[in-house]
Sequence to fold (224 residues):
Amino acid sequence: MESQLKNDIFQWDVANWSQSLTLWEKYGDEIKGKRCLALGERDGGLSLWLALKGSDVVASDLNGVTEQAKSLHTKYNVQNNIEYRAIDMLDIQYPDNTFDMVVFKSVLGALSTKQNQQKAIDEIYRVLKPGGLLLFAENAKGSFLHVFLRKYFTNWSTYWRYLSSSEDVALFSSFSNLEMDCYGFWGLFGRSEKQKNLLSVLDRFSNRMIPKKNRYILFGVAKK
Fold:
């Protein structure tokens, strides 16, 4: 995938968060012609990826997507494959078994509590068709150093609930199958995209040597 397209899809800390594609692309052939829901979209990156794969997409955010998202979709000429909605993932206003696929990136943490996160996952499960897929990428708790630095340098750390790769597998217990992996250690310490890109080189070489529980990005695919 060309770098500009990858930047438009993932939008920040691109080199590390785009590692989720190593798993997601295994299901790429299943996207074409399918009905998909992208949650927490804001600037429209994942809905762009789905539309370019040939799906019909509902791109949503709590208060609707930004104008930047719509401009991005027009840039790639996929706007006719996308509709825009304001959707609260705790109460998805669609009937049961509506979508073939649901995707989100970095939204569960904002729900603050495990109870709310479970409610959101249950809503996603409800609107997925039997055999449907949830593709997700989330901020993981990571190491004690990640926890410490977020506490002092991240504005939203007071309310954000970071996922644990071991403790939060239960969130997806309703699904028949779950594939999950973790990535990245150094990239989080970058204060700019340029710094994150440089640190991603270290991640590329050291990722396998770092225990999964100490990595800061959690991504996966769950099948209903």
User: Anything to note?
Assistant: The helical segments are 3-10, 14-17, 21-24, 45-52, 67-75, 114-127, 144-153, 193-206. Residues 52 and 77 are 9 Å apart (CA to CA).
